[in-house]
Amino acid sequence: MNVTAVSNKNYDVKNQQISNAYSPRYATTLPKQNNVSFGGVMTPVNGIFKFIEKTGFFVQFLIVDTLSMVLPRTIVGLNRDKDKIGHYNYQAGLEELGRESLSGPTMNIIPMVISAMAINHFVPAVKLDSPVITGLNETLLKTVTNKNSTDALKDTSKLSTKTAEQIFDTAFGDFKFKDAKDATNYKAKFVSLLNTAQQEKKPNLFVNFYNTKIQKKPSAYTKAEDDFDKLVVEINNANINNAEAPADAHKLVLKAEVPEVRTSEKTLARAAENEISTSSKTFFEDFHHYSNDIIKKFSKATVEKPKEFLEAAAKKVARCKMGVAGLAFLSVGAFLLYLPKIYQLSKLSPAEQSAERVKKEMEGGKVVC
Amino acid sequence: MLINKINATPTTPQSPLPTNNNKKVAFGANPLNALFKLDRSGTMSHNLFITNAFIFLLGTRLFTSRDKDENREILIRDIPSIIIAVVGVDTIQKAATKGIQKLSGFAIAKKPKERISDSISYAQTNDLYIYDKNLDKASGIYGFAKRLDSKEGNLEKICSKLNDSIKSKVSGLDNTQILNKIKSDNTFANELKKAFSNPKNKALKYAETFKTLPTVIGFAATLSILGFVLPKLNIAITEHIAKKREQAKLDNKNKQIQA
């Protein structure tokens, strides 16, 4: 079992680990790179690790775990006492294989399945990190208290559109562009792409892979996600307020008041530096889930106190998140308790068998496998 | 009250502790809230994973072990495995990133000002080492180079990789001098912009290689320590203990015979 040889979280809060927030599809829009002569050994190695990074966390974990833990340990197991028994030690090898290949991946698969079921069937907003929900709630609140939005309140699509406009103003309102028309154009495109996020269905991993790589016809959602990423990069790069190129051109920052948890002065100080920033593709997906969960519920209900309604929604999501994590934790535990029954092939462990062989050797007897 | 939007340049970790600024603060943190969460991909968060590994992974293996020898092997193999896998490998990679950044002069660290740091991703490498034409509307090639400087890159070493002409022009100059040259010498600035605009430029190739090295080192460390060294050590310890046990029995037997 190996953890995080390459990490891939998409949410950025300062002082937490800022990790890979970039989609692999951005990299694939560049022309293919030819081998450069000085690349030598590193060019194919770069290629392998680029592929690993592109495929996302779980595939990375599987590849790295298999190559660095499962295979070597199986080889060591097979060769255990080979000189004494005259052939490969199949029991030791198979036990190592069974134990290592099943424990590591299932510790990730089980939570992923439980999380996917919760998101797809119960509470979509569970996918979002709590500060992002807070930021989006604040934006939605501004939208619904805005007199110009009253006609949109009972229609999910219209309310999403107005919220998207508010998000643009929040994230990029103080940006300055060379051409005054740029702001209007960017806003229109921004809102149109977030509308697609709200209206289109997000294809699952396999369907997406088939559409994008095999059919070469990405879905409307996927195409809009790529365009949204390019747009955010363009907006960030084109901001003439920046004295230097933006540290992260894919970043989108929501202004919001984030309630902080104080456990000590140090924690308070670190929490105060938090900003709610997400990467463009993460935000696109977040908006998809948020609009189909909280915005939809808001437009379907008669809401007399919007602030309290949204706070209650956020609390419900927070409780669900904890519940899902707890369920995942216990499910993994239950499986790991059952797992030894699968890989333990005999009453004697390979360790005990090794000890028995040493004993027989020292007694001058014949070692039996 | 709104939090002030932090500008594009990241603040340094050494900045003085900020005041509360009337932010809402909830007292009495519930540590379970912080522990029980899943990452975006649906996997357990780092701390939750470690907790689960020690309680269930290690615990269930010990609970279902068949004999004392297996018990001992589990302790010797799995406790260091979990610690090295979740803490050690990461630390090795982060330390390697900073080391390679200092030696090569290429900006490859996510947190360049800290002692150890993760590497940037391949997509971020593309952003840092390929000039995006949209920057023409704002900070331009100066801003692009300034960003590399902010991320602790050595502009002389980076720019020298582009081509020989640029190499001769930046030779012996420090970051400030190169940035001033970009401001004052349009020809140089344009030459630099053209070179960086090439999506196959050599500085990018070097950056990708340097950024991959810590991952390779981490992978090699996992493979060797967790894949081979620990299991072999385990087997050696089992055999050694079995030999000692058996030797003690044989010595006892001999004493009884002599008596």
Describe the structure concisely:
The complex is a heterodimer of chains A (369) and B (259). Chain A is mainly alpha-helical.
3D structure, described in words:
The complex is a heterodimer of chains A (369) and B (259). Chain A is mainly α and 369 residues long. Chain A is 65% helix and 4% strand. Chain A contains 14 helices and four strands. Chain A has helices spanning 24-28, 42-54, 57-78, 82-85, 90-122, 130-145, 156-172, 180-199, 205-214, 220-237, 265-272, 280-300, 306-343, 350-363, and strands at residues 11-12, 251-254, 260-262, 276-279. In chain A, helix 5 runs antiparallel to helix 13 (306-343), helix 7 packs across helix 12 and helix 10 (220-237) packs across helix 12. Chain B is an all-alpha fold and 259 residues long. In chain B, 66% of the residues lie in helices and 1% in strands. Chain B contains ten helices and one strand; from the N terminus they run βαααααααααα. Chain B has helices at residues 31-35, 46-63, 68-104, 122-129, 140-150, 155-160, 164-170, 175-184, 186-197, 202-258, and one strand at 25-27. In chain B, helix 3 runs antiparallel to helix 10. Chain B is elongated. In chain B, 40% of the residues are buried. The model of chain B is unreliable at 1-29 (pLDDT under 50). Chains A and B meet through helix 1, helix 2, helix 3, helix 5 and helix 10 of A and strand 1, helix 1, helix 2, helix 3 and helix 4 of B. Strand 3 (260-262) of chain A pairs parallel with strand 1 of chain B.
Query: In terms of quaternary structure, what is this?
Result: heterodimer
* CA-based gyration radius of chain B: 28 Å
Structural class of chain A: mainly alpha
Low-pLDDT segments of chain A: 1-38, 268-274
Would you tell me the overall average pLDDT of chain A? Answer: 79
Largest beta-sheet characterization of chain B: none
Q: How many individual helices of chain B?
A: 10
Q: Which parts of chain B are unreliable, with pLDDT below 50 for 5 consecutive residues or more? A: 1-29
How many DSSP E strands of chain B? 1
Strand content of chain B: under 5%
Overall geometric form of chain A: elongated
